[in-house]
Amino acid sequence: MSKQRVAGLAVLVFLAGCAGEEPGKLTIDNARSAGLETDRQQLFDMIEAEDGWSGYWAGDRVELYQYERSSDVKRDFFEGVVAVSQEENHGWVEFCQQKNLIMLSKGKHACTRLETVTAGNPVE
Predict the structure, then answer these.
(1) pTM of this prediction?
(2) What is the DSSP letter of 21?
(3) C-alpha angle with apex 31: 26 to 34, nearest 5 degrees?
(4) Taking phi first (over 0 means left), then psi (-120 to 50 degrees means alpha), and beta for anything else, what does residue 41 get?
(5) What is the total count of domains within the chain?
């Protein structure tokens, strides 16, 4: 087999392995690097997320969930949680999404922090 064919096959194998990854995918650790203080892991698998934690960020009580891809995020579910919470006074004020991360917040400051999170270089 020629070197060109081997190189071509290597590129194809590499690309196939990367096909499931979304460019710039964010993680809970990226959010921690940007100031999220976690205290308890959530039942993230019930909402088909990869990971989920509660904690505090910018003085707000939050729950942050990580999905494989931004298109997997259950926005309708989180919108419903906030709507019911406001009707029944449970405290969730807003939800926000940054790529494949989505967060519920009991305050008005944490969503601004979530907007600053990047995969390669988290903001301190």
Answers:
(1) 0.77
(2) S
(3) 125
(4) beta
(5) 1
- Whether 52 and 42 have beta carbons less than 8 Å apart is answered as yes
- Residue 80 within a domain: yes
User: Residues with Cβ < 8 Å from 12, sequence gap 6 or more?
Assistant: none
State pLDDT tens for residues 16-57: 444 455 678 999 999 999 999 999 999 999 899 999 999 999
CATH number at residue 96: 3.30.200
Does residue 65 sit within a domain? yes
Amino acid at 91: G
**Sheet with strand 37-41: strands edge to edge:** 37-41, 51-57, 60-66, 101-105, 94-98
In a domain, 61, yes or no: yes
Structure tokens at 7: 């190189």
